[in-house]
Amino acid sequence: MATATQPQSRPSNGLDQFFASLPDRESLSILDLAGASQAHGSFITNQGHRIYSNDILRTLEESFGEDGDFVVNQADPERAARFLAESLPFAEDSFDGVLVWDALQFLAPPLLQETVDRLFHILRPHSTLLAFFHAEEKVATVPVYNYRIAGPKVISLSPRGQRKPAQYFNNRSLEKLFQRYHSVKFFLTRDHLREVIVRR
What distance in Å separates the CA atoms of residue 107 and residue 22, rounded to the nearest whole number? Predict the structure, then answer.
């Protein structure tokens, strides 16, 4: 049986919907914000698509976590601008899909909204974004994971420590966050994750 420190796999309705919503053609461009992964690269390129990787959580830590309060530091305009330039340095209409995973829940406003707006611009019309948000409220910290695609409907989660979320989200707040997008759909999992599919 897997321990708390070993990867654990489970079905993911969000991942299933993400791949089902991609346009039915090859050579799509997919952005993966979990960082470089051979598993992700192989899975997506085997479907005939291109993958671009960036570890947005690592950029978050490097931008705001070295000194002082991680959340308070996000209000520094110079640090926020550097974070956006390093984590999402892409032209408008660059991608057909973005795998954001759980990074957005650690961003404080207004940087959170600026990041979501930047994602809107780098996504092509009718493309899809997948993001995860912990559904539990009134907890001091939430688990952070490395997410790996184990199949078109299955993810593998490897613990990456604990972190305090910058804020908590319910369906209404997420709909407001993504109000510029065409649609928002939610799936609540047994491990208290809200999987969110957002259509551009």
Answer: 27
